Amino acid sequence: MNIRKKVHNHPFLQRLRTSLNGGLPPWYFLLPTLLVGISVLIPLAYLLLRAFEADRALSVELVFRPRNLLLLYNTVLLAVSTLIVTTLLALPLAWITSRTRIPGRSVLTLLGVLPLAIPGYVMAYALLGFTGEDGTLNSVFGIHLPRLSGFTGALTAISLYTFPYLYLNFRSALSGLDPSLEEVARSLGCRPYETFFRVVVPQLRPAYYAGALIIFLYVLGDFGAVSLMRFETFSYAIYLQYAASYDRVYAAWLALMLLTLTSSALIFEYKLLRGLFFHRAGTGTGKKTQLTELGAWKWPAYFFVTILVLVSIVLPVSTIIFWMLDAMPLERTDSLVRALRASFTASAPAAFLATLLAIPLAYNSLRYPSRISRGLERVAYLGYATPPLAFALALIFLTLGAVPFLYQTLAILIIAYTLHFLAEAIGPVRSSLYQASPRLEEAARSLGYGRLKAFFLTTLPVMRNGIIVSAAFVFMSAMKELPITFLLAPVGFETLAVNVWSSTSEAMYSRAAPYAFVILLISTLFTGLLFAREWFIKRN
């Protein structure tokens, strides 16, 4: 009896019971989440082991190479500069489309989102094809601009692709602000610009931190744009060390340095958000935001939006079409079809698997909240926060060391897509699960149905829209993914993204155009469908 009591009161078991304060999920929901956690953490552990394969002296020499300081400087400079440029683009656009009566607001909102359909490396291709001696600008208009490259080219390409992330966050925040504070500020004699900077801007901090974190992490992990523009960051250096020099130990150390940088960004964002509260402290309800009449400022607003649309949408689309007209002989159609088939072959299964795994992760987090369920969900986000090249390198070390038969197979590519983009699938699934009352399952179980059957009959149908959106997000992201595909795809497995990059890196802009056009077409279709669905829901 005393032994049983001691076991029952053992500190480890007490901590476990505390961690499981939401209860233990059924095994068929718990097992997939544990599998996800193991699948994300083990490759990163292998990356760590490979880095420490070298002796201490070599490890110290690799870490403290002067070149690493240059890589750190270039990477941080590009990330910070991108945040500055995207803020200057996104904030005015969000204000115009959410707080003014400018005609055509719905169209302008859609135009602000569409650049997301143009991946960074496609934007880089368009900028390279637009400038230079043989570029579109010189060929059509006779205006010669030096070909963009280096820091300026990378900054331009990435900023034009990523500013919608900040724009969407700003627009959502501006639409939800309580205008009472602004009215109080104006009644105290504040001018409009003083009200904006003293009252509105501080309340936008959570939205800014969320969008800035996404952009910062994207810049840290970007490979396509920086490699095409020949600007050395950590990601580009990792690829060069692994693919060109085949120095795996140094590549592993570079990947760990990049992981340290991304982890620091996550911690910094968490500390900035801690203690921020912007909800109403008193009773009553918030007023509806009054839209501003622009008056004569309408024309500067239209000018700003027009320039932004021309640079971020019209320029890349027109450049792709220009090079397509000079591009594709009939014999190259087969290559385009093969690339399209390869992209679908890897992206569709990844979208299915990621959505399938997102369901138990979100379900456990909401229905059985505990430190363990939340921790497993955070691990899934770790796979997304890990830069793509570092994650791919970790999987290479894992497959070569433990399961060599999976190295450079379609299976490992699909697994990499699934684990890396799983976080994108969790959000919409979890949002739809919030709308499914637990009482529906309880009612079904009271009628004699088992727990799993009750879930399929009551909760899963409510989650249908979220599941569709999740699958669409992952499919679109996997279709555009470049660095993971480069390192993990089977030999000869060339997707649309790989063909765009390889042709552009050799200055074969005509050859790259059809592949870039198909990526643009598919991405625009999915972005338009998701936006149309959101617009339809709001209207009805």
Structural notes for this entry:
Mean pLDDT is 79; it is low at 12-20 and 277-285. This protein folds into two domains: 23-64 and 328-540, Orthogonal Bundle (MetI-like fold); 81-230 and 291-326, MetI-like (MetI-like fold, Orthogonal Bundle), CATH 1.10.3720. By secondary structure, the chain is an all-alpha fold. It contains 26 helices and no strands. It is globular. It is 77% helix and 0% strand.
Offer a concise description of the structure.
77% of the residues lie in helices and 0% in strands.
Provide key terms for this protein.
540 residues; mainly alpha; MetI-like fold; 2 domains; 77% helix
Any chance you could write out the topology, listing elements then pairs?
Blueprint: H1 2-8, H2 11-19, H3 27-51, H4 56-63, H5 66-99, H6 105-113, H7 120-130, H8 136-141, H9 150-176, H10 180-187, H11 192-203, H12 205-221, H13 224-228, H14 234-245, H15 248-273, H16 298-325, H17 333-367, H18 371-385, H19 388-401, H20 410-434, H21 438-446, H22 451-462, H23 464-480, H24 483-488, H25 496-505, H26 509-539
Helix pairs in contact: 3-15, 3-17, 3-18, 3-19, 5-6, 5-9, 5-12, 7-9, 7-16, 7-25, 7-26, 9-12, 10-11, 12-15, 14-15, 15-19, 16-26, 17-18, 17-20, 17-23, 18-20, 20-23, 21-22, 23-26, 25-26
